Automatic annotation (TrEMBL):
Family listed: Belongs to the bacterial solute-binding protein 9 family.
Subcellular compartments: Cell envelope
Any single Gene Ontology cellular-component annotation: cell envelope
Organism for this UniProt entry: Salisediminibacterium beveridgei
Keywords for this protein: Metal-binding, Signal, Transport
GO biological process terms, semicolon-separated: cell adhesion; metal ion transport
Name the UniProt record assigns to this protein: Manganese ABC transporter substrate binding protein
Length: 304
């Protein structure tokens, strides 16, 4: 992807230079490095999608640090500044960013745009509203990328060709990921196709790749890890003879450890739901985090 992007970047500079329009001189100078576009988003996974479309034409920054979850985040003073300084603030929407109102009351004129527009919502279980974790289905990431492309192209029409090329490359990678996941999970026996984690965040993934899902709790912004919730999941794990449990990188692992200790069912590994991986984790991008999750599921659920 790097090479393609670089070639396209050169091409775009060459085209702009060839136009030789004086009033665009300042912009031409900027686009030799990048176009100086700066956008912000709520959390790291969305930043990966936006970066895929933006490429070398600009920079994207996110607010919620890797390792923290985006539901109940408390914006810090530098967040308000970042968002104020950016051309647009991209959210997930679907009620994910519970702190959005508080943020945008103090960020001036920066427009706010939800990237999940157009996805088929899956409702929360036992609570009102949609489950916000639509990004865990690659088909939805394609919609997110299309939304980024449409919005950036409207805001920065001079760069719309390069955005379109970038988006095409990114979406191609997402399609390949989708195919790869299908192949990987194919051999998991029917009775083992259930993903049990702390927060029941894998519904969209489950819908796409034929898994049931369950969590100790439904969503991080609700009640987390009450004894009633823990007892209910312990019953489920025993009744259904669940082969393995999984734990997210962005939750307190003690709850699922309690379930594991009580039932004797192993925690097969860590999975990424609400953030990409830290530097050096091997899951720093959306594609890599989804590959990692899938490998962990296959290890935990295949022939246990
Ligand atoms: Zn979550």
């Amino acid at each position: 992807m790097g090479k393609v992007k670089l070639m396209l970047a050169f091409l775009s500079v060459a085209l702009l230079a060839a136009c030789g329009n004086d009033q665009n001189n300042e912009e031409n100078a900027a686009s030799e490095n990048d176009a100086g576009i700066f956008v912000t988003t709520s959390f790291s996974i969305l930043a990966d999608v936006i970066d895929g479309v933006l490429g070398d034409s600009g920079e994207v920054d996110y607010l919620v640090p890797i390792g923290e979850e985006p539901h109940e985040y408390e914006p810090v003073p530098s967040d308000f500044r970042k968002v104020s300084d950016s051309s647009v603030f991209y959210t997930n929407g679907l009620g994910l960013e519970e702190w959005l109102e508080r943020l945008i009351e103090n960020t001036g004129e920066t427009p706010v745009k939800s990237l999940s527009e157009g996805v088929t919502e899956i409702p929360l279980e036992g609570e009102s509203g949609a489950d916000p974790h639509a990004w865990l289905d690659p088909a939805n990431i394609e919609i997110y990328a299309e939304n980024v492309l449409a919005d950036l192209s409207e805001r920065f029409p001079d760069h719309k060709e390069i955005f379109a090329e970038n988006a095409e490359t990114y979406i191609q990678e997402i399609n390949e990921l989708d195919e790869w996941i299908k192949e990987q999970v194919e051999g998991i026996p029917e009775e083992n196709r259930i993903i049990v984690v702390s927060e029941n965040a894998f519904k969209y993934y489950g819908e796409a790749y034929d898994f049931e899902t369950a969590g100790i709790w439904e969503i991080n912004s609700g009640e987390e890890g009450t004894s009633g919730q823990i007892n209910a999941i312990i019953d489920l794990v025993r009744d259904r003879d669940i082969p393995s449990l999984f734990v997210e990188t962005t939750v307190d692992s003690r709850y699922i450890e309690t379930v594991s200790e009580d039932t004797g069912v192993n925690i097969a590994g860590e999975v990424y739901t609400d953030a990409v991986g830290m530097d050096g984790s091997g899951a720093e991008t959306y594609v890599d985090m989804m590959r990692h999750n899938t490998e962990v599921f296959v290890d935990g659920l295949m022939n246990q």
